[in-house]
Write a structure and sequence with these properties.
about 240 residues; Immunoglobulin-like; five-stranded antiparallel β-sheet; CBM2_carb-bd_dom_sf; Ig-like_fold
């Protein structure tokens, strides 16, 4: 009987160990570690300004049993982050370390991409030691050297309106720019006539000889497009 009892106890210990190992294996298989890719880009900074904006992009490549991801980085003394809906950043007391947690209402889904903007104030220096969920994140500084597209379909129209007289209006198709258009410069016979912010009709001096109208677009970073031109025959 003693021998049988010892065997039973030994067998029980073996079964218990097997159960633990099986459970661990099941957990490992049933709850795989999720993966995400993340990057942080510093958006082009306006000349002469202090402060910039970070664009944070996180993409999950597996369904993830989590509803949040965490961004961390260090900033120089005196720097701060500005309030931004979606990813509030908090400074760790006594340090220059900032932490922000994005929270979703449902678990992350594979292929879902989150893009959040974080404005940084008071400095021009880049953040350091950037991580997303504890993993080093790719960091880049973006610049804007791309000019806007050329204003198309520049047309000058001369007409006479009752009670107003004869005048000329100018219009063109809107330009586009990767970081946002600022406006247009309108030239008449090679001389700057006016700077405008839209491609709406504008009144220009009525031509008395063959007149050349030229329009070029510009963005907020000082990039200019080529000219779109139109020659108004007279008479």
């Amino acid at each position: 009987m003693l021998m049988n009892g010892s065997r039973l106890r030994a067998r029980g210990r073996i079964l218990a160990l097997a159960t633990v190992l099986a459970t661990a294996t099941t957990l490992a298989i049933g709850s795989p570690a999720y993966a995400s890719t993340g990057s942080v880009s510093r958006l082009p900074q306006l000349p002469g300004t202090i402060g910039y904006t970070l664009r944070v992009t996180v993409t999950y490549d597996h369904n993830a049993p989590t509803t949040e991801w965490r961004l961390e980085f260090d900033l120089p003394p005196g720097a701060g982050t500005l309030n931004w809906t979606g990813l509030p950043m908090f400074k760790t007391p006594g340090t220059n370390h900032w932490v922000g947690t994005y929270r979703s209402t449902s678990p992350m889904v594979a292929g879902t991409t989150f893009t959040i903007h974080v404005p940084i104030g008071a400095v021009t220096a880049d953040p350091t030691n950037c991580t997303i969920d504890g993993n080093p994140c790719a960091y880049s500084v973006l610049t804007d050297t791309q000019p806007p597209t050329v204003p198309a379909d520049v047309i000058a129209r001369r007409a006479t309106w009752p009670g107003v007289g004869t005048g000329t209006t100018l219009k063109w198709s809107a330009s586009t720019d990767d970081w946002g258009l600022s406006g247009y410069e309108v030239y008449i016979n090679g001389t700057l006539y006016r700077t405008v912010t839209s491609n709406a009709l504008i009144s220009v001096p009525n031509a008395t000889v063959t007149t050349t109208y030229a329009v070029r677009a510009f963005d907020k970073f000082g990039n200019y497009s080529a000219f779109g031109t139109y020659v108004l025959p007279y008479p």
